[in-house]
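Structure ticket #2291
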Amino acid sequence: MKIQTRKNLNIQALNRQLRAHFAKIKDPGKVKSLPLVDIIMSGLAVFQLKIPSLLLLDDMRSEPLAHKNLKRLFDIKQVPSDTQLRDVLDRVPTDEFRNSFNLVFHSLQKDKALEQFKFFDGHKDQYLVSCDATGIFGSTNIKCDYCLAKLQKSKMMTEKKLHYHHQLLAASMVHPKQKTVIPLCPEPIIQQDGQAKNDCEINAAKRLYYHLRAAHPKLPMILLQDGLYSTGANVLELKKHNLSFIIVAKQDRCKNLFFGFDKRKEGLKDTVEFTNTSIIGDKTKKTRTRTYSYVNALPMTGKGDVAVNFIKFKEAIEWIIDSGRKKGTNKKKKSNMLGSLILKLAKIILKK
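Resolution: structure written out below.
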């Protein structure tokens, strides 16, 4: 299904909404000659137009055609220099931009553009939100008050130097059948005021959950997370904010889960297993066998205070080599993917 263009969801209409919102942000008073809203919209233009550097935006100030397009698309009356853009935006608190993400999201919601992102989990429609951290800046020389710091080996591997960096915990609405994603407001992973220790992805996730629920109190969401999040504390935090989840679980990190699963399977207690076989490959035909095993209400810890629904997924691919010295040889490749779910598991979600 393709995303259809709607009149009030085109880029100019959305930019008008964003500009009206940015105009309400309090000016830090760094540059008196330029309106803050022009500086913020210039920053937005860098991302929307994929301008490779701020210096190139600076050059566009003296190009009549480029300047005209910036005014037409973003209503920018005065384009800032790259130095002005950095200095001013660095001083605008991150929280001032949260509502701009919500503004675009609610416009999509109002125009029913979110309908194609609905994911039926076997019981009701929900929305998949993928979460992961990414690095956005790193240097051994340049730093600011919000930089995280860690010791890192130099390129010559002779000494360790302090490496200053910024990270970001991103959250985006996704769907298996959609190439487009909808970014939600990310959570900065930066040095927090009054804290001696570095901020981290898990702490940023707690703030993300709070802000997600504050912005979308009734939106049914399933958060997709990697193995870093497969802890009882994180599951409790997700439940606290009424967020469903699918989290990758690795055996070395979740020993109680795997031990409990094996015990339940040995005792034939409420474990369900089924297999799906299909033929794949264009030139060389391969047999792919996928085995799904799952159980509900499995304790995550030895205390038994946190229970999750657990699925174990195995995949085996077999084929016969049809050329070369090893012609006729049977090959087999195995891989495992393991996850824990809060959902009431049903075959329909596994097939999806």
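Closing remark: Residues 344-348 have pLDDT under 50 and may be disordered.
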